[in-house]
Q: What sequence folds into this?
């Protein structure tokens, strides 16, 4: 059970770092990631041989399509904001959206105590996002236009990625059944976007991002196996511990310069987000 909590966080935490290190354009990052997901989906399906019906196949396929849109927007946001600043916004808003859907539509919050704990967790996550985005030096501040554009991309991305996570569960599609049709939807949508952005396509950049797809596939597979066991809210909540990996790896691996005060604020924000995550995850 512990590994189901850990793998999504590790995979999704490292994925944007790996993608950023390739210095590829967003469309090539997307196609490389989805290509690996499709290959692993085929291998997994040959081994496990799950049984499909039209509804489960369609739900998983559409889930993959929403992922492609959301992930493409997220990759684009990394062109405007450092990963260490973008991922707290992305992870936090996804978590808030997924938690509300799980609570309202899946009825995972069944009494007042759960609601109070969950809402406190959400408020802490919002506060943590604010703290992690603190910038001390005026010369480092992005223009308002650039920052607004990045936040808009991240909010739209989070809406699409929230649907990607919750759609299969809403139709009671299990993890084994999800993986292959979902990967087809991801790859098909990525290919469509690549045709639209064909002037940015570079096969060498796609190949570099096959490793990005490995990190994502590990996270995705373990998440969808965890959901039927521990619920949508809890499984996705703990997967968002990825934000801690993205923050610190984004700073130290990608060499984002931060002042001492900024690092203190980021650490405080990360701690607050973690507390919020554990509060939501503690709801039975």
A:
């Amino acid at each position: 059970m512990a590994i189901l909590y850990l793998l999504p966080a590790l995979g999704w935490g490292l994925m944007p770092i790996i993608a950023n290190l390739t210095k590829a354009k967003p469309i090539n990052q997307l196609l490389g990631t989805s290509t690996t997901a499709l290959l692993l989906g085929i291998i997994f399906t040959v081994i496990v041989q799950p049984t499909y019906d039209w509804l489960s196949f369609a739900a998983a396929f559409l889930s993959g399509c929403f992922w492609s849109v959301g992930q493409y927007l997220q990759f684009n946001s990394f062109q405007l904001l450092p990963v260490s600043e973008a991922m707290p916004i992305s992870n936090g808003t996804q978590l808030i959206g997924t938690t509300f859907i799980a609570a309202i539509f899946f009825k995972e919050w069944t009494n007042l105590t759960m609601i109070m704990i969950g809402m406190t967790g959400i408020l802490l996550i919002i506060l943590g996002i604010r703290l992690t985005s603190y910038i001390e030096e005026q010369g480092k501040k992005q223009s308002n236009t650039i920052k607004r554009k990045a936040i808009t991309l991240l909010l739209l991305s989070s809406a699409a990625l929230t649907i990607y996570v919750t759609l299969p569960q809403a139709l009671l599609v299990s993890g084994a059944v999800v993986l292959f049709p979902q990967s087809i939807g991801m790859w098909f949508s990525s290919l469509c976007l690549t045709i639209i952005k064909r002037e940015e396509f570079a096969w060498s950049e796609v190949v570099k991002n096959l490793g990005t797809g490995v990190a994502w596939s590990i996270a995705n597979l373990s998440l969808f196996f965890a959901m039927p066991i521990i619920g949508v809210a809890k499984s996705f909540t703990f997967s968002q511990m990825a934000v801690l990996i993205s923050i610190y790896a984004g700073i130290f691996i990608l060499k984002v310069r931060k002042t001492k005060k900024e690092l203190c604020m980021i650490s405080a924000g990360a701690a607050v987000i973690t507390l919020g995550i554990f509060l939501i995850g503690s709801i039975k």
The mean pLDDT is 86. Residues 18 and 211 are 7 Å apart (CA to CA). Residues 24-134+141-204+257-283 form one domain.
